[in-house]
Amino acid sequence: MPMSRLHIDKLRQAGLRPTRQRVALAHLLFNAGDRHVCAEVLHGEAMAANVRVSLATIYNTLNQFTAAGLLREVAIEGDRSYYDTNTSDHFHFFQAENGEMMDIDAANLTITGLPELPPGKVIDRIDVIVRIKDAKQ
Which of 15, 63, 72, 96 is a Cys-bridge partner for 84, taking CB atoms 3.0 to 4.6 Å apart? Predict the structure, then answer.
């Protein structure tokens, strides 16, 4: 996989050293436009692209990219997380049967009735996940 100057610069601007593995994973994550991916799927994509990397390295890299602001973690249930390349404010549909996650534009949803915040606290982000399933025929 070629060392993309764009991905190298993106990693450096985020304060991350552009190692071969990070650049290769950035290529897989960011070359397909906005997407939602879990660690296991990214690991499979890496293996298919001849990027030899352990699942532990995938998790570490996803966490580093998230901490650097390159990804947004969306926790679904328990220890199941997806990583979103779209870090803007938006919400999600989630279909458990196939593991598909889709964006909902924040402009299409209004949040009301939020509780009063504890003193000295501000809202960082509101996550909304609308679980969907196929309608019965």
Answer: 72
Q: What pTM does this model have? A: 0.85
Domain boundary among 83, 100, 120: 83
Residue 87 CB partners (closer than 8 Å, separation 6+): 69, 70, 71, 72
Residue in 50, 40, 132, 61 with CA at minimum distance from that of residue 95: 132
User: Are 94 and 79 part of one and the same domain?
Assistant: no
| 3 state SS of 35 | coil
pLDDT in tens, 52-102: 999 999 999 999 999 999 999 998 877 789 999 999 888 999 998 888 999
Residue 137 lies in a domain: no
* Angle (CA) 95 98 100, round 5°: 55
Based on the structure, what is the number of domains in the chain?
A: 2
- pLDDT tens digits, one per residue of 96-123: 888 899 998 778 788 899 999 999 999 9
**How many CA atoms does the CB half-sphere of 120 hold within 13 Å?**
0
